[in-house]
Design brief:
It is a single chain. With 220 residues, this protein is mainly α. It is built from 12 helices and no strands. Helix 1 packs across helix 11 (177-190) and helix 2 (30-40) runs antiparallel to helix 8. The radius of gyration is 18 Å and the shape is globular. The two termini are 23 Å apart.
């Protein structure tokens, strides 16, 4: 338990001074979170800012997206590539309108029963859109957990590993869980990077299990 408390406390402290600022954060608007999460898939967050702003200038709800021609969505999102996201955004919006009167559900069951919504986007909508206590977990968060805690996923699709999702949920603090979830994303992007991680400057390096020479050199 001491490791878990150390991890949460220090990563939140780091985040308070190093957080990234994006227009979709802390809106607590499920629509804005929904469109941003679709756009952020396999794309650098910095590249999403302008297309995200264009989306909000043109669409205020899933009902607006449900009505629009798919070519219009393509025109706005073409700078991001990955054209499948246009169809996915359109299909999910149509499903929300058909099944939930153009509202975005506020529970896991309805979200996960919507084709195109996986566990990550589901939890992101609930946490970042509705302010509910749900964990987030993806390959970037897995990298942090693997390095610090020494945990491993034994599945071919770690982002779908229930044991890892349960582990992520266990770490969630009772308060500040929205900040904590964002801190994981920013920490993975700025410190615990896939290549050339900043181990020497890492605020978690004293207890980190990652076998890096920079980590070892800081333990005196």
């Amino acid at each position: 338990m001491a490791y878990e408390l150390y991890f949460v406390k220090n990563i939140l402290n780091w985040y308070s001074e190093n957080r990234r600022i994006f227009p979709w954060r802390y809106t607590f608007d499920p629509f804005k979170v929904f469109i941003s999460e679709i756009m952020l898939q396999r794309t650098r967050a910095e590249n999403v800012i302008e297309p995200y702003k264009k989306m909000l200038n043109n669409f205020k709800s899933v009902a607006d997206i449900e009505k629009v021609n798919q070519n219009e969505l393509t025109r706005i999102l073409n700078t991001l590539g990955l054209k499948y996201r246009v169809k996915r955004l359109k299909n999910i919006s149509e499903s929300f309108c058909e099944n939930y009167s153009c509202n975005i559900p506020n529970n896991q069951n309805d979200l996960l029963n919507t084709s195109g919504i996986g566990q990550y986007i589901c939890n992101a909508i609930l946490c970042f859109g509705y302010g509910m206590k749900y964990p987030i977990f993806d390959t970037n968060v897995l990298r942090i957990f693997e390095r610090f805690f020494g945990v491993k996923s034994m599945t071919k699709s770690p982002h779908k590993d229930k044991k890892m999702w349960d582990f992520a949920e266990k770490l969630l603090p009772e308060e500040n869980y929205v900040d904590y979830n964002y801190s994981l994303l920013d920490f993975a992007a700025k410190v615990c990077k896939a290549r050339n991680p900043c181990c020497k400057e890492c605020p978690l390096n004293y207890y980190c299990k990652y076998p890096d020479k920079y980590v070892n050199s800081t333990k005196t």
